[in-house]
Amino acid sequence: MASQKFDMIVIGAGPGGYVAAIRGAQLGLNVAIVEREHMGGICLNWGCIPTKALLRSSEVFHMMQRAGDYGLKAESISYDLDAVVKRSRGVAKQLNSGVAHLMKKNKVTVFMGEATLPAKGRVSVKSAKGTEDLEAANIVLATGARARELPGLEADGKRVWTYKHALQPPHMPKKLLVIGSGAIGIEFASFYNTLGADTTVVEVMDRILPVEDAEISVFAKKAFVKQGMTIREKTMVKKLDRSKDKVTAHIEQAGKVEAQEFDTVISAVGIVGNTEGLGLEALGAKVEKTHVVTDSHCRTGAPGLYAIGDLAGAPWLAHKASHEGVMVAELIAGGKPHAVTPDAIAGCTYCQPQIASVGLTEARAKEQGHDIKVGRFPFIGNGKAIALGEPEGMIKTIFDAKTGALLGAHMVGAEVTELIQGYVVARQLETTEEDLMQTVFPHPTLSEMMHESVLDAYGRAIHF
Ligand SMILES: Cc1cc2nc3c(=O)[nH]c(=O)nc-3n(C[C@H](O)[C@H](O)[C@H](O)COP(=O)(O)OP(=O)(O)OC[C@H]3O[C@@H](n4cnc5c(N)ncnc54)[C@H](O)[C@@H]3O)c2cc1C
Q: Residues in domain Pyridine nucleotide-disulphide oxidoreductase dimerisation (predicted)?
């Protein structure tokens, strides 16, 4: 059968791929998208969205336990884990159907099947229906990533889980070990700990949430310990011995290995790119550390072949994938889009308290040779935070002392994942401390702390 021709073929319908397809179609390109499993990728089906649905349930549960703080009564509070999971799966399903609808609306041709790249400009799609051949001058790889498996710590879905198992748990953990304290590990630790699991988090680095500013890691650790979690830093899980109903973890700290029993383990030790089996090497695309090597505009070096999102490396975030998708579609359509710069991309972790950040940490700003001014503002100094019953948290801002450029912003506390975008916009518009100080923030809002943190960097904070 003759191959079907398109202007652009996208492989993978996650937030990178489906957004690239829509933007390409908006720009008048004839676009096809190939997906082997589920529209919406990891983000909508097994990542961002279903985790936030679970975390919302644990947050409401936590609020119900605190009802007395608000002068309310909630007695015999309990939960139904199956119903909590059912809600999360329902939310994922709703959004997954939404992506299929968007493809239709934008006249993107969808092929459900496994894609390979047999030659330059060619895509072969295998499905139960057989094989279909497609052709396009421009191919966008957006095949995403999967959980990293470390030898001896492999998931089995029974007692040792990856995020996929943790999203559809076969049982409620009583004694839970979470290996890895990045965003994924910490979110699951927060969810299960709030629902009552005796939770231990083990982190090999010297602090949890190691990509965040050190002060935020310390703040978050204190809050988690107060909530009953055990946090072990500079610690490594060497091996897991499994039996029917328990796992013995061999845990090394300061050169000593001890055995500890858990009924459930979540392995959250990072991700690896889905690079295998596509035929990348034959086309001249380079793979390093499981990710496709790209330039600032997601070009792989092989003509007409682009890689975006998790496949193309850190930061492994849905909004980074989507923004790269838009940029690549605009490039293919003949535009001159700006490159996506990692420092402009905010990261959010939806634990309790929430964490959000953008730009340089204090340590990185110093490493880069900036002379800096640092501002801090605590939630306890904010009227809205106190009215909400959320007095724990802080906002830290870092400025270049010479230019007044906002180098980084770091937050921990209630709703900070919604606040961070204010600083992201500020950075995008290259505002200085002066612009931010002159901006009027509405009262009473948590956002006033963003103002106060900037004022504090210049010795002008009002409410603390
Ligand atoms: C538990 C968890 C929570 C997360 N929470 C957040 C969060 O709160 N915020 C955030 O920004 N990010 C979060 N992430 C990360 C986010 O999910 C990813 O950054 C995002 O999904 C990457 O998008 P992508 O389009 O690059 O790839 P993916 O979403 O992984 O999509 C890739 C798609 O390609 C398909 N595919 C792969 N190979 C082929 C092939 N050969 N042929 C056809 N199709 C193929 C896959 O089936 C998949 O659907 C989370 C991730 C996890 C695991």
A: 345-453
Q: How many residues does the chain have?
A: 464
Residue 103 to residues 170, 181, 386, Cα–Cα distance (Å): 34, 36, 45
How many CA atoms lie within 13 Å of 463's alpha carbon, on the beta-carbon side?
19
Q: Are residues 26 and 139 in the same domain?
A: yes
Residue-level pLDDT at 159 = 97
Q: Are residues 61 and 192 in the same domain?
A: no
Instruction: Give the pLDDT confidence score for residue 374 in this predicted structure.
Output: 98
Q: Are residues 20 and 141 in the same domain?
A: yes
Residue 185 labeled ligand binder: yes
Give the whole-angstrom CA distance, residue 113 versus residue 11. 10
The residue from 288, 307, 342 where one domain ends is: 342
**How many Å lie between the centroid of ligand 1 and the Cα of residue 311?**
9
Distance (angstroms) between ligand 1 centre and the Cα of 314 equals: 12
Shared domain for 388 and 447, answered yes or no, is yes
Beta partners for residue 202, in sequence order? 179, 232
**In a shared domain, residues 28 and 130:** yes
If you take atom 12 of ligand 1, which residue's CA is the nearest one?
317
Flag whether 181 is marked binding. Answer: yes
pLDDT at 20: 98
167: left (phi over 0), alpha (psi -120 to 50) or beta: alpha
Q: Does residue 20 contact residue 142 with C-beta atoms inside 8 Å?
A: yes
State the residue range of the domain holding 445: 353-457
Q: Which residues line ligand 1 (CB under 6 A)?
A: 11-17, 34-38, 41-43, 46-48, 51, 114-115, 142-145, 163, 184, 274, 278, 309-311, 316-319, 321
Residues 79 and 25 in one domain: yes
Positions of the chain with pLDDT under 70:
1
Q: Are strands 4-11 and 31-35 parallel, antiparallel or unpaired?
A: parallel
250 has catalytic annotation: no
Provide long-range contacts, Cβ within 8 A and 24+ apart, for 442-445: 443/383, 444/382, 444/383, 444/384, 444/387, 445/384
Give the CATH number of the domain where residue 402 resides. 3.30.390.30
Domains held by the chain: number: 3
The one catalytic residue in 101, 171, 338, 443 is: 443
266 is in an annotated binding site: no
